[in-house]
Structures are given as structure tokens and as C-alpha cells.
# Entry
Amino acid sequence: MRDLPKCPECGSEYTYEQGNMYICPECAHEWTKQAIPEPIDNKPVVSDAFGNILQDGDTITVIKDLKVKGSSSVIKVGTKVKNIRLVEGDHNIDCKIDGIGAMKLKSEFVKKT
# Structure
């Protein structure tokens, strides 16, 4: 059996191929084969809030004020973060922020610069 990608909308693993399209039977989402970014070296494909693909070493900008859990600190909108590292999990960006230190961020709150 061939390895088919999971549905980008609902994450279902039951997708099937029909011609030049992939189709999800659970949410009825259809997408072309060209629309799927291929993971490089089995690393997860991570995109920012605007759909730009992120890679290790990129510079990003925070697009929303983020409270730091367990602290009274806040990461302000427009904060630039250099040299990110992508990891698996809910918080998929590992980085160091000046004045705060090591941090994990969600890609949905950043944009690639």
C-alpha cells in the first residue's frame, strides 16, 4: 500500500487518490498532489499564520501579544526571533527570545520575515 498524506483540513489518515487529486472521506476536502509540501529529511512541515513554510534557522516576527506562562512577562507584537528550530508537538517552534530566554511558540502566532 502506498503512503498517502493525511488530510490538511481534519488530519484524517483515510485519504484516497483519484486521478490528480487527494480526497478525504471524512470531511470531503479535496486537494491536488502539487499542493502538498514534501517533508525534508522526515522533519515536520510547519507553516506560519499566513501559510509560509518555515525552516530551521529562519527569522520570525510575533503577530500577537503572548503571555509567558508562569511569569508576568509578555512577548509583544512585532518581536523578532532569529534562528528558530522546528520541533514536533503543539508548540512547534523552539527559540531564544532576548530578555526572556528559551521558549517554545506555536506557529499560528508568528509570521516569517
About this structure: The domain at 1-36 is CATH 2.20.25.10 (N-terminal domain of TfIIb). The mean pLDDT is 87. The radius of gyration is 17 Å. The longest strand covers residues 93-97.
